Amino acid sequence: MKSLMERAFFLKKVSLFSDLDLEFLLAIAEKLHEEEYDAGEKIFHFGQVANRIYFIARGSVRILTPSWHSIQELASGDYFGDESLFNDEPRSYQAQSTGDSLLYTLSRSHLLAIISECPSVAVLLLQTYARLFPCRYLSK
Q1: Per residue in 80-131, pLDDT tens?
Q2: First and final CA of the chain: distance in angstroms?
Q3: pLDDT value at position 9?
Q4: How far from chain centre, in Å, is Cα 67?
Q5: Of 3, 57, 58, 61, which is most buried by a Cβ count within 10 Å?
Q6: 4-132: CATH superfamily
Q7: 43-75 b/e (C-beta count within 10 Å ≥ 16 → b)
Q8: What is the separation of C-alpha 121 from the centre of its chain, rounded to a whole number of angstroms?
Q9: Residue with more model confidence, 88 or 134
């Protein structure tokens, strides 16, 4: 398991949190859960209830349609799974680790607490979603 400081420095490299100061990053880092996935392992599937956002610390992740067609490849520093946290809809795509990967996750309740303390995080999420839509990840 990575130290609190290592997780905070990782968060500083994520576009969503890059403008935050170290004190706030340490508070967020305390809330992160660490998950490891083997190459080819499914992270979540289509229709699954969304309850966390994922940050790629090491490795890579493929975003897939419900029929397993590749939509996008993500790498270290990227994040995914955020849009379903806000629309209370089940996942509209699947995610699979394409290499041995270390992911940090943040629960919906922790993310909402962070947004209430730092609204600029919400603005960055909206900007990311707007820039990548409809690719992020499937339009209805």
Answers
A1: 987 767 777 888 899 999 999 999 999 989 988 888 888 888 887 777 766 6
A2: 38
A3: 95
A4: 22
A5: 61
A6: Jelly Rolls (2.60.120.10)
A7: bbebeeebebbbbbbebbbbbbeeeeeeebebe
A8: 13
A9: 88
Element (H, E) at 27: helix 22-31
For residue 138, is pLDDT > 70? Answer: no
Rounded Cα gap, residues 71 and 95, in angstroms = 10
Q: CA 3 to CA 22: how far, in whole Å?
A: 14
Hey, what are 137's tokens?
A: 């990840």
- Block residue for tokens 């170290």: 22
- The pLDDT of residue 140: 42
Partners of residue 70 on adjacent β-strands: 64
Q: Which residues pair with 8 in a beta bridge?
A: none
For the entire predicted model, the pTM comes to 0.85
The span from the CA of 82 to the CA of 136, in Å, is 10
pLDDT at residue 42, as a whole number: 97
Burial label, 123 (beta-carbon count in 10 A; 0-12, 13-18, 19+): exposed
Record the tokens describing residue 55, joined without a space. 């940050």
Q: How far is CA 102 from the centre of its chain?
A: 12
